User: What shape does this take?
Amino acid sequence: MGNLDAKRFVSGHGFSRTEREVKKLGALALMKLRSRKMFLARIEGTVVAAARHPTLAGCRFLIARRLEADGTAADEPNVVVDWMGAARGSTVMVSTDGDIAREKRGNNTPARMVVVVLVDAVRQPAVGQRSMA
Assistant: This one.
């Protein structure tokens, strides 16, 4: 194996690809691998569905509002899939890339936004202080 195979790109979900695999997929795939997105949200309620895609049988659907940097909720709600057991009023981290749902429920699942973390606390540095991250 050459040096290209030795270097691996690891996403936020533990999937990895060699640089050679990424080059085969092209620049758009590389941008997608680097642009995995998550956001904090507050759970505001549930969605009841009489009929659903077969790959989503047994899943809970929740109404979540994205949290802005100052802690306020955004205007537009999102419907998210939850396997973590989030309760109303909980702060959660939501993944928007869909890989988690496809890995758990199959490649043809229509789910994209999934609760991946139940957040205990959010701490931000005070104005004028540098973050240690």
User: Anything to note?
Assistant: Residues 27-34 form the longest helix (8 residues). The chain is about 20% helix and 35% strand. The longest strand covers residues 38-47.
